[in-house]
Amino acid sequence: MNELWHYDSPLGGMTMASDGKSLTGLWFDRQRYFGSGMESTGMALQRLPVFDETCRWLDLYFSGGVPDFTPPLALHGTPFREAVWKILLTIPYGQTMSYGEIAAQLANQRAERQGFTSRCAAQAVGGAVGHNPIAIIVPCHRVIGAGGSLTGYAAGLDRKRRLLQLENIL
Q1: What SS3 class is residue 90?
Q2: CA-based torsion, 106, 125, 170, 164: positive or negative
Q3: Domains along the chain?
Q4: Which of 53, 86, 103, 108 has the most beta carbons within 10 angstroms of its beta carbon?
Q5: Which of these is catalytic: 55, 121, 140, 163?
Q6: Active site includes 55?
Q7: CA angle 33, 167, 28 (to 5 degrees)
Q8: Per the confidence metrics, is the pTM higher than 0.85?
């Protein structure tokens, strides 16, 4: 069963999901892939300690602070997507990484085991980043295109731009 909670951010409403212990989802309301991976039945609205911790993290972040903790996370996806999300978690506040850099890291990690190349991985990285189920905390907004261009963001490019401005990247 998934538990849900709502958060009012300066960039619009957000919905959180939890398995009861860990955060399993955090989406801007009505963003692309909203609720992706959640069971379609058994939803409830209940305040949980992980929601309190996530709200505290978001309050700190949106007030311009750099959170020094991470709520417990449970990311569920394909092995490829989980590998991409793990790399996203390494992107520091106020910095960016390109899709190509992520693809190169994946290629280095997987080349011998699975025959991946950075070229074939680069074509899939964008999809994995776009399907990130935990917005902001797993910082997919910090992923940019070649040459620093702003490219797709499931919650919209305006929100991506505003998040990067909050972190003084733009």
Answers
A1: coil
A2: negative
A3: 3-62 (3.30.160), 79-166 (1.10.10.10)
A4: 103
A5: 140
A6: no
A7: 20
A8: yes
